[in-house]
Fold:
Amino acid sequence: MPETKEISDDTLIENFLKTGNAAKFEPLVRRYEKFASVYAYSLLGNEFDAQDAVADSFLKAFTKIRQYRMGSSFKNWFLKIVHNTCYDLLRKRKKQIYLDDEEVGEAIKNDEALSYDNIENLNFGEMKQLLLKLSPDLRSVIILRYYYDWDYQKICKFLDIPMGTLSSRLNRACKKLKSFMEEQNE
Structure:
């Protein structure tokens, strides 16, 4: 059986740009939809908001694809769009008042969004509820470092923060998670 090569992101983007045919963008959506969904969910803690953020992110990527630098990582470029879209949603959320906090909390507790069979079987497991207690800034560095296994330099570049800020956030996040775990075990 002949080995099939996966078409590179840049080739897919070039094909889309040459033809203008939206169907040529679809393989990129299929390739990164679950990856983006897990990351958006990890920041937002709500499956429906995560789905909206990912859909908005793909629309932004589709309309701004000419801003993508060929030869760089489309995956990282797109994940940055997802990241920014999630933070925009979080800022809007701060201005809203929730009337059904108990119902929302129960929905999050029962949410199965993290059971995707993707990203090398990424599984937040028991940490899911503890991660949701962290602020999005702390949660994102934990996700990128320990679940996506990104190195410090890559995280700093992606989040556009200095190394000291990253170290501080990781340190604070780990201390808070440890504290949450101790409270849970009491």
